[in-house]
Description:
Layout: E1 12-14, E2 19-21, H1 23-41, E3 48-53, H2 58-71, E4 77-85, H3 92-106, E5 109-114, H4 115-118, H5 123-129, H6 135-153, E6 158-160, H7 165-178, H8 181-186, E7 200-201, H9 209-218, H10 236-249, H11 253-267, E8 278-279, E9 286-287, H12 293-303
Bound molecules: iron/sulfur cluster and zinc ion (2 copies).
The site of one zinc ion has 8 residues, from helix 12.
Amino acid sequence: MRCSTCAGEAIVDQPYRGAHLCDAHFRASVEERVRQEFHRQLPRFGGGTIAVALSGGKDSAVALALSERYFRRRPNVRLVALSVDEGVRDYRSRTLAAATTLAERLGVEHRVVRAAEELGTTTDRASADLPGTVPCSFCGVWRRQLLNRAARDAGADVLVLGFNLDDLAQTVLMNLVRGDLDRFVRMAPHRTRQPGLIPRIAPLASVPEREVFLYAHLATLPFDHGECPHAERASRNLFREVVWQLEEQLPGTRQSLLRTHDRLVDRWLRTDDLVAPARCRACGEPAAGDLCRACEYLRAVRHAGEGVTAP
Ligand code: SF4
Ligand SMILES: [Zn+2]
Ligand SMILES: [Zn+2]
């Protein structure tokens, strides 16, 4: 199979746009899409600090490498990579090692925050304390909050997340199926600043997961392939399967889901129509009620019997 752009041999097909690309044109196409997303999601960015969430997996590795590539000629932009150690044995230590290697290779400042120190518990311990709860529920809430705090501590104006096209399409569908309009409107990439939250952007939004993997591989980025031992209980797995099946039968489904989200938010829904977040009485972070969800989970853990020091 020949590349759609040159006479070279194609290494990847893109059924959603009817193209086949060689190594060089594939990498250029990913870099160009990410450049366009930075341009679209960060309009009029005059300079400042950009934090990049770096788990050590392929998505965040590509997000950091392309952020560094995009901003390297902007002396008024400072990059800082942020990792969260949720405390998942035999998994997170390996991804953090890959994250450290990549940040060093790119010469980017790297900070690691640990749930054990910040929250007084870990995902492994909490999953034993709360056997009836899917670990990703509290782990995801805690990670988001720790990243937000770390980004604020680093003086960040914006937080880059490694969500790819598949991740975002799954999230759109999940929020629609659950009827969760609040999360539907507030999902990254953020167009407006929400009180207490560092705006999050997703420059890989138009790159499918398998292309992110291929790019990371071709660019020889250090990343860890491991899967979290708690991941099999995540409800996202069902949505991953559904979106994948739809995309197989109807190429372009993922882009359609994202377009649907953007149009609904643009035409019908506005962030400021939703309940403005209050402040959590325990930790001061944005909260829908009296306590934020992170503190609610900490309270549940404490009630489950372990001596956790909640904030
Ligand atoms: S898969 Fe779930 S439990 Fe594991 S690190 Fe991710 S959010 Fe946490
Ligand atoms: Zn080519
Ligand atoms: Zn709180």
